[in-house]
Design a protein that fits this description.
Elements lengths: L8 H4 L8 E4 L7 H12 L6 E4 L18 E5 L7 H6 L3 E2 L7 H6 L7 E6 L7 E3 L7 H7 L2 E6 L7 E2 L2 E3 L5 E4 L14 H13 L5 E4 L3 H7 L9 E3 L2 E2 L4 H6 L14 E3 L1 E2 L3 H7 L5 E3 L2 H4 L2 H4 L5 E5 L3 E3 L4 E2 L2 E2 L2 E2 L6 H10 L4 E5 L11 E2 L17 E4 L2 E4 L5 H10 L3 H15 L8
Parallel strand pairs: 1-2, 1-5, 2-3, 3-4, 5-7, 7-10, 8-16, 11-12, 11-17, 12-14, 13-15, 14-16, 17-22, 18-23, 22-24
Antiparallel strand pairs: 6-9, 18-19, 20-21, 24-25
């Protein structure tokens, strides 16, 4: 077994030099002690033009602060809430990329990785550590990095699958036992519960599920207690799956690949969720190249993918990454799973969202707001769900789908949408709602 010598975080980050590209492990596994040490070097103006890459992270992201202009430049693969203002103001940036291809940026050499900063479980008796809650593109970064700095943390769960790596892949070790960042969930509103009901009604026994995080996925999961033989193949899961596992509803028995396993590439939940995956052979943490490959996703039957949107137009174009020209999140895995589910035997690709914003603005629009990005094209969309119902747009003409989409828009918006559709499509169009 490798003899581990621990050094301080300040000593470890001395390997960073001007112009370097740094990868941070993501979500709950962001190595905060290394981030703090890195920013201390930034405060001292010891380097310039250091690029920082990651999926979204939980917790502070001080490197995106405008005060570090010229010192750090954040270029993430997804815009999290902790860097959103900086990205929108131009002090940080976003790399548009399908989640499944984030690892390709490193492996195919599109991005260098000079330093990978990760967080791992303690070394086991065989000389291995686990990446715990965050495999995603981090494994690729480790493979390609010139220097790998690992924070060894007893709170990192020992997850299985691609998360297990030999400690010999790590160059520098820092010890820190700060608990992982938990995710905080709000209780689903009545609108979100209604959306959850419509989605749950589309899920068949034996389905393999993918859904993100938040109130709508939790509302869906809460209504699946009487289902049978559900499986999980997803980019991430959270606490909502745990009661269904305990009840035997989620058992993976109907999966064609990874039968009996909950497959994910990162987790974002409470400490209970992190404890659940610790040394649990039922949970298979995999490289994002595997979890988000549509041709792997499609091998399971009845893949049901539930993703969200910021805005949808009356032809079925889905914007999920920006509010007009202001980037809000990212592409994520929406297209990976929308396409994968559509190729699955009996699969269903679902876009679910409230019909209106909290300010009462319709999220269904005649045309997308100028500058809005199309994440799921009108050619790829299948099911669209709001609190007013679920409609299948696949195979429908422009006028047919406009009528279906308007039928589940907020009632206050339907007359305006109907008028816009009439002006767009001509005298044959008329919505009766």
């Amino acid at each position: 077994m490798q003899n581990i010598k621990f050094i301080s975080a300040d000593e470890a980050v001395k390997v960073v030099k001007s112009g370097d590209h740094i990868h941070l492990s993501s979500v709950a596994s962001a190595p905060q002690i290394l981030i703090q040490a890195l920013c201390r070097r930034g405060d001292a103006r010891e380097f310039t033009d250091v690029r920082i890459h990651h999926l979204h992270t939980e917790g502070p992201a001080p490197y995106a602060d405008p005060k570090y202009e010229g010192i750090f430049f954040h270029q993430a693969f997804f815009v999290g809430s902790n860097v959103r203002k900086s990205v929108q103001a131009g002090y940080a940036d976003y790399i548009p990329i399908l989640l499944g291809e984030t690892q390709k940026l490193y492996r195919a050499g599109y991005l260098p990785c000079n330093v990978a900063m990760i967080q791992v479980s303690p070394v086991d008796k065989n000389g291995y550590v686990s990446l715990g809650t965050s495999v995603d593109a981090t494994l690729a970064a480790i493979e390609c990095a010139e220097h790998v700095i690992a924070v060894v943390n007893k709170n990192v769960p020992r997850s299985w699958g691609d998360a297990i790596i030999p400690a010999s892949m790590i160059d520098l070790f820092v010890e820190d036992n700060t608990p992982l960042e938990p995710a905080h969930f709000s209780e689903p509103s009545e609108i979100e519960k209604a959306i959850g009901t419509h989605c749950a009604n589309l899920i068949e026994d034996g389905a393999t599920l993918q859904m993100g995080i938040g109130a709508i996925p939790n509302a869906v999961l809460a209504q699946l207690g009487n289902h049978k033989n559900l499986g999980i193949h997803t980019e991430m899961f959270a606490d909502g799956v745990l009661p269904l596992v305990e009840k035997g509803v989620i058992n993976g028995a109907n999966k064609a690949i990874d039968k009996g396993k909950l497959v994910a590439t990162f987790l974002m939940g409470s400490q209970t969720c992190y404890d659940f995956i610790d040394d649990n052979p039922m949970v298979l943490m995999k490289d994002v190249a595997y979890t988000n490959d549509p041709f792997i996703i499609a091998q399971n039957p009845k893949v049901t993918a539930i993703n969200s949107a910021l805005q949808v137009d009356i032809t079925g174009q889905v914007c999920a990454d920006s509010l007009g020209t202001k980037f809000y999140s990212g592409v994520g895995g929406q297209m990976d799973f929308t396409y994968g589910a559509s190729r699955s035997e009996g699969g269903k690709a679902i876009i679910a969202m409230p019909s209106a914003t909290n300010k009462g603005i319709s999220k269904i629009a005649p045309v997308l707001t100028p500058g809005a990005g199309v994440v799921t094209s009108r050619n790829h969309i299948h099911w669209l769900v709001t609190e007013y119902g679920a409609v299948n747009l696949y195979g429908k003409s422009l006028q047919e789908r406009a009528k279906l989409i308007i039928s589940i828009a907020h009632p206050d918006a339907r007359e305006e949408l109907d008028k816009a559709a009439f002006e767009r499509f001509g005298p044959h169009f008329h919505f009766v709602g």
